[in-house]
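Practice set, problem 2.
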Amino acid sequence: MKKTIDAASHIPDFWAELPRPFFVLAPMANVTDSVFRKLIAKYGKPDVMWTEFVSADGLASPEGRKRLLPDLAFGESERPIVAQLFTGHPEAMKQAAELVRKLGFDGLDINMGCPDRAVMKQGGGASLIRNPDLAIKVIEAAREGAGPLPVSVKARIGFNKIDLEWIRTLLAVKLPALSVHLRTCKELSAVPAHWELIPDIVKLRDEASPQTLIIGNGDIETPAQAAEFARKFGCDGIMIGRGIFGKPWLFENLAKLRKKGENPVATAVYAAPLKTPRQKLDVLVEHAKLFERTFKGLKSFDVMKKHFKAYVSGWDGAKELRAALMTARDAGEVKKIIERG
């Protein structure tokens, strides 16, 4: 047991070692799986990666754990890598956190913002906004199970309305990092994210828990926009979600700037590199082959179709090619359709 724990804590507090501001990849179900993250790490790694969110309740049962373990697979190139879990049951969180520690993750994050009804029905995700006492118990259970791993939280700014007291409640437990999706649960993604609230949240942080890093999330599509918002609103980190679709190279220039020791916020060239249609299609084929090799018998190849839509756009004939790709049943067919043009 000790050997496993030591392996998991090879970065005692990676949050404290990050540059400011830092840029991270959002956890997205059936998007940021181990295959897509492997490509992102290859073509342009952000400062931190998250897994897809995974049910702690499922991981706490032998049968569920066997089914869900592929969602917690990761490679060394993805570090620092944070496992994200959801549940409304402290004991399940404790058991799942123990597993996360044994698997060698760099951190554990608790999803307290997902508005999906199935997730909330289980007492997880955004439902915890309405039950802050239970939210704290879940955090405490995660810490007990995770041992030396830092436990962070991703949350929204309220349930039916903006509620900064909820944010204050989370800050009171001295988290190493708090990612804030700047919409309420009720708002979903139907309104612009309330980035104007970040200065107020930072002020609350300074009063209650100065060591907690504030990560802003919502509506950020490009690295250039991320750098602008970090500079304008003063958060410690920026989380990008939808902007990564079809662009595993989104953080390529960030990785280059980090290697040179330059500040991306002060560097005008911090933007996603442009790729030709041929380059995009080559990566799409690589993605499809890796997905099939990794998840055959575990996930439907249809999961790849949301990626087809993202990779294949922005040039004449893209619409027709997308339509053809939607009929593909495996990576071999993807390659043949693309070669036919």
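Problem 2, part (b): a different protein.
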Amino acid sequence: MSRIVTRFDKTSTADDVAAGMDLRGHNAIVTGAASGIGIETARALARVGAAVTLAVRDVEAGCRVADDIARDTGNVQLQVAALDLLDHASIAAFVAQWRGPLHLLINNAGIMACPQSRTHEGWELQFATNHLGHFALALGLHRALAAANGARIVSISSSGHLASPVVFDDLHFERRAYDPWKAYGQSKTANVLFAVEATARWSDDGIVANALMPGGIMTNLQKHVSQATKDKWIELEKAGIIFLKTPQQGAATSLVAAVAPELAGIGGRYLEDCNEADIVENDAPADRGVRR
């Protein structure tokens, strides 16, 4: 199995990747499209003609983003729909209102390193948001994805997955001390495993899924990260030790997974900096840079 390599790299932008594409007639959903790299993912898809649904918790914010993208791209095929990944009824309502084939499902929304909190079912918040909500969404939209005859699911993970496997014996930190980074890491590992298993189960239906690390991007995702830690990341970037991306650069790998011809019909891969990642040995230390 050869490693997937494109002509893009860590400095490429979402618009660079999408340039020259024609996605007219393609329907896309981007979760969490009211902020961060979700905005730029939706913008790049709209710029090349896709009909994009911004699936967001804050509909007013989503409408402002959609208006801005429409002015910027000239594409008015933008819809804003309410979606709360922690609310089963919200997910079900979103699925129920969907009509037609779905070519791209970009599972972009997420939370990071938040204080311990649980859903009303007792589920740990990061695992419930980052994995379980998107799992339920993809499952509900399976028929629409299959109808596209070549759909792609994009699962936004993180190098933070190195912080923890999925601890099946204690998914929700009921018997171990809560650690916000381990909880985040577990949810991001789940995003990767979802891409592998969704491809295994659904490729015969014409659906493939890939996971990715978008890179270090300073967005509202880090609202629970201390300012001291953020300042350290900035110092490391100034020293040339890490590379912080703009939101447009952060969205580039999402666009590779969504539209790059090199990944047509291929799933179960993990991407970073617009290419398939190198294999990391099992005993490699966790990345301590900026995690997305």
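Answer key, part (b): Confidence is low (pLDDT under 50) at residues 287-291. Strands lie at 27-31, 51-56, 78-82, 104-107, 151-156, 207-213, 216-217, 244-245, 270-272, 275-276.
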